[in-house]
Amino acid sequence: MSLRHLILPMALVAVFAVQPAWAADNPDVVRLTQRLTTLEANSQLNTLAAYERLQARQAVDTLAQASGKQRPDALYVAERRVQIAEVSARTQAMQRDIDRLERERSELLVEASRQDAARARAENERLRLQAQMQAEEAERLRQQSEADAVALQDVETALKGVAGAQTARLNAARERESKLAREEAELVAGGKLPASKRDSRGEVFTLGKDSFGAGKASLGSGAQSTAKTIAAYVQAFSSASGVRVEVTAADAKLAQRRAESVRDALVAGGVPQAKVQVSGRAGKADRNEVVVQSK
């Protein structure tokens, strides 16, 4: 606290304590003194505007001692000094309240800012945890998907292995059956089966180029014997489901007649006609094939 702030209150106390007795005879002095006394009695204002209150008290004392022509001027000065003291005290009180409110406002703003920052941090943490959980779930699903894919691949590989083994066993069984049927057919028909090959159509027997004469549709004796042996093979081979005769010749009609001749020879050898299909078409080279289809 400054020296000025210590001196002024002490001076006010001294002035108030020593008031001339004749001041009571002056109503203006009494009125102004009461205003100053009221200001001093206000607990919210009596610590404010000390210097202005001291000046006001001195001006009132001067008014009390003034006489004659000096009184109007002294009254004016005293009125103004008292008014200044009152206004200064109220102004300083309002300024003190304004400063207090500003501090409270600043504190509230700081607290609101802290709460906003805390909420923002909490929201960021929530979003971070949510993103982390989503990433972990995505990774788990990816790993599960990979594991399922590996398991499915293992199952497919096992199934392929089983299917391949079954197919191999089936083909081996068919080959054995075909070999036995071939031997039986050659014994029964007394002929020799031509060499055969297997493709997507079935087991393919190819008749010799001399099976038909030039421009002829009737089978030669050797071709008829071969057709008879093939018919015996079809009957001995239980897996045979049907026969398809495919003939190619320079003329489509000639090819069709030759195919029908082969069919007739097979039917004569004991193959049901309903199981034999024929196909004749034009081509550059003659080709006579008997396809035994399997179940």
CATH fold-level topology of the largest domain: 60s Ribosomal Protein L30, Chain: A
Number of domains: 2
- The CATH superfamily of the largest domain is identified as OmpA-like domain
Judged by helices, strands and strand pairing, the structural class is alpha+beta
Q: What value does the average pLDDT take?
A: 86
Q: Major β-sheet, in short?
A: 5 strands, mixed
The helicity comes to 55-70%
Rounded to an integer in angstroms, the radius of gyration calculated over CA atoms is: 65 Å
The CATH architecture of the largest domain would be 2-Layer Sandwich
Number of distinct beta strands: 5
Distance between the termini: 120 Å
Order of helices and strands: HHHHEEHEHEE
Please mark out the parts with pLDDT under 50 across 5 or more consecutive residues, or reply none.
Answer: 1-22
Widest beta sheet: strand line-up: 1-2-5-3-4
Count of discrete alpha- or pi-helical segments spanning 4 or more residues: 6
Shape: rod-shaped
- In terms of DSSP E residues, the strand content is 5-15%
Oligomerization status of the protein chains: single chain
| CATH uppermost class of the largest domain | Alpha Beta
Notable features of this structure?
295 residues, alpha+beta, 60s Ribosomal Protein L30, Chain: A, five-stranded mixed β-sheet, rod-shaped, disordered N terminus
Task: Give an account of the 3D structure.
The chain has 295 residues and is of the alpha+beta class. The chain folds into two domains: 3-106, no CATH class; 190-294, 2-Layer Sandwich (60s Ribosomal Protein L30, Chain: A). 67% of the residues lie in helices and 12% in strands. It has six helices and five strands; from the N terminus they run ααααββαβαββ. The protein has helices at 3-17, 27-41, 50-65, 70-189, 221-236, 252-268, and strands spanning 196-199, 202-206, 240-249, 276-282, 287-294. The protein has a five-stranded mixed beta sheet, with helices on one face. Strand 3 (240-249), helix 6 and strand 4 form a beta-alpha-beta unit. Helix 2 (27-41) runs parallel beside helix 4 (70-189) and helix 3 runs antiparallel to helix 4. Residues 1-22 have low confidence and may be disordered. Pfam families: OmpA. Residues 1-23 form the signal peptide. Residues 223-284 form the OmpA-like domain. Residues 84-155 form a coiled coil. Keywords: Coiled coil, Signal.
